[in-house]
Write a structure and sequence with these properties.
The chain is α+β, with helices and mostly antiparallel strands and about 240 residues long. It is built from five helices and six strands; from the N terminus they run H-H-H-E-E-E-H-E-E-H-E.
């Protein structure tokens, strides 16, 4: 009696199944070996960033700019100060009121040894034209002054008194002196509307340079320029 043959399965032939699976595993491994190195090489070669050279150039330009700025900083600072000063002067000039008539006071301080000399000149003007001046010169000595300084004060007082005597009969020009142990105040008034230089021409040498230097109706702006060039600070009242 013939037995019917059953088909052979993997379960019935475990060895063949293992061999077949092993071949598949080896084949998959070979495939991975071919794929993995390619992907690794692809990932190791990162794309080069664009614009790298531009950053270097920009950095160099920035350093050059900073160096130039530091090098020229003193000149830039001076230019800024000059500009600000001009702006202040323009602002002061524009705000300064125009005065055609009034009094302009000019002051000068000097120190010589132990002597402190303050000279104040007041100019009276009308329609920008000079009419009269009043000059007050005060000399003060320090408490420790001796010798040469005291002698200089005595000489100034004697000169002032001599000039006061000379001007007793001169119209429009007068001097008054006030002396203490450590100070001398000299007040000199000139009325240019009544003063005539001809009245002192005969003995002008005795005035020792105390002759009025301005003239009647002289422009007050011109006088201010002269006083400023001599070191006086002037202000119009």
């Amino acid at each position: 009696m013939n037995e019917e043959k059953k088909p052979v399965t993997n379960e019935e032939n475990p060895k063949e199944n293992v061999v077949s699976n092993g071949e598949n595993v080896n084949q998959n491994a070979n495939n991975l070996e071919n794929v993995v190195p390619q992907n690794a090489n692809a990932s190791s070669q990162a794309p080069q960033k664009k614009g790298g050279n531009f950053k270097y150039v920009l950095t160099v330009i920035l350093f050059i700019f900073l160096f130039a700025f530091v090098f020229f900083l003193p000149d830039i600072s001076n230019e800024i100060k000059t500009y600000q000063k001009k702006q202040q002067q323009q602002s002061f000039t524009s705000e300064k009121p125009e005065v055609n008539s009034g009094t302009m006071s000019c002051t000068l301080n000097q120190e010589t040894g132990k002597r402190n000399i303050t000279a104040t000149v007041e100019f009276t003007f009308e329609n920008k034209k000079l009419k009269s001046t009043n000059t007050i010169t005060k000399t003060d000595l320090e408490n420790t002054a001796t010798g040469e300084d005291l002698k200089a004060l005595e000489n100034s007082a004697a000169s002032c008194e001599h000039l006061e005597t000379l001007l007793e009969d001169v119209s429009g020009f007068s001097v008054h002196c006030n002396q203490t142990s450590l100070s001398l105040t000299k007040s000199e008034t000139v009325d240019y509307e009544t003063f005539s230089l001809d009245s002192i021409q005969s003995n002008i040498a005795e005035f020792e340079g105390n002759v009025p230097e301005f003239q009647l109706d002289q422009n007050i702006d011109d006088i201010e320029s002269v006083m400023a060039s001599s070191g006086y600070d002037c202000a119009v009242k």
